[in-house]
Amino acid sequence: xxxxxAALCFxxxxxxxxxxxxxxxRILIPAPDADGIIRGADGRSWRxxxxxxxxxxxxHARPIDANHAEELKAPGGEAAPAYGWIExxxxxxxxxxxxxxxxxxxxxxxxTGREYxxxxxxxxxxxxSKEIRSLDSAAxxxxxxxxxxxxxxxxxxxxANDNPEATDMDLVAELRKALNLKDDAGEQQVLDAxxxxxxxxxxxxxxxxxxxxxxxxxxxxxxxxxxxAKNQAEQQLAERDKADHDAKxxxxxxxxxxAGKITPATEEYHRANCRTAEGLDSFxxxxxxAPEIGADAGLDNKTPGSKAGEALxxxxxxxxxxxxxxxxxxxxxxxxxxxxFG
Length: 342
Description:
Blueprint: H1 2-8, E1 10-11, E2 24-29, E3 37-39, E4 45-47, H2 51-56, E5 62-66, H3 69-72, E6 84-91, E7 97-103, H4 105-112, E8 118-125, E9 132-141, H5 146-151, H6 166-178, H7 187-206, H8 220-258, H9 267-273, H10 277-289, H11 314-323, H12 327-341
Parallel strand pairs: 5-9
Antiparallel strand pairs: 1-8, 2-7, 3-4, 5-6, 6-7, 8-9
Helix pairs in contact: 8-10, 10-11
């Protein structure tokens, strides 16, 4: 067990004299054994046939955190402060990967104060060949958990002893499902999706809830004022249109009475039919074609109601057709007018 700890979770030195430092070159990925394999405490194993490729993939400094916060907390938007940085990588004489570590004040205090004792690497590897491709970060830990330290998979799967690949495969499959990714999405795509969601969550938290972007939202007070102004404008427009229409109706009724085309007895009837623009248009067409039924009918020497019961003239029938009223209704109204004004 001591050999495995030395190989996969490296003990950090504690300076014995004042002025010594914990910075410097430390092994991060051990050299493969005689079979070209790097073995984990839980039975899983990896290969590193191309250590130079791992070094070449290291393009910028990588963080040293505590208990793998970069892998476990940062994707969810939680704080994952660095305790130091891996500044560069190199290949050791025995084929191991070494990193030049530079601890910050927090990290130096944690190591020299014996808060943390071991350094645990995190690396990416090919799912099929198990070939290690790149180093992501390293973490200060006290209780080595090799499944967590080496592949971000968390605690070993219940079937890990029987099936060492179960933890990785189950976790990636669950992440694909949770992130709505395709079934063939690789580990890098899954990790990128997790980081994107973490970034979006942090952005949402940093934006004050009472100042949303104005290109997508309108302040409620402004919206309410605009809605009130819109309703008032629509009401004023409707009132103006009604006043204009009523004025036109009154003018048409007055003109029709003056021309003898309608009588005062039928005024309200025609006014009711002119409530709409279409009704007013029909009334005006009727007036244009109607005879002067209000002209002198020569009834001065006749007794009241003497015309009652007489048949409609051709002109009166024409008026019925123009107004769209029945001859019976027209005859009844005519007889009433004759009795009233005869």
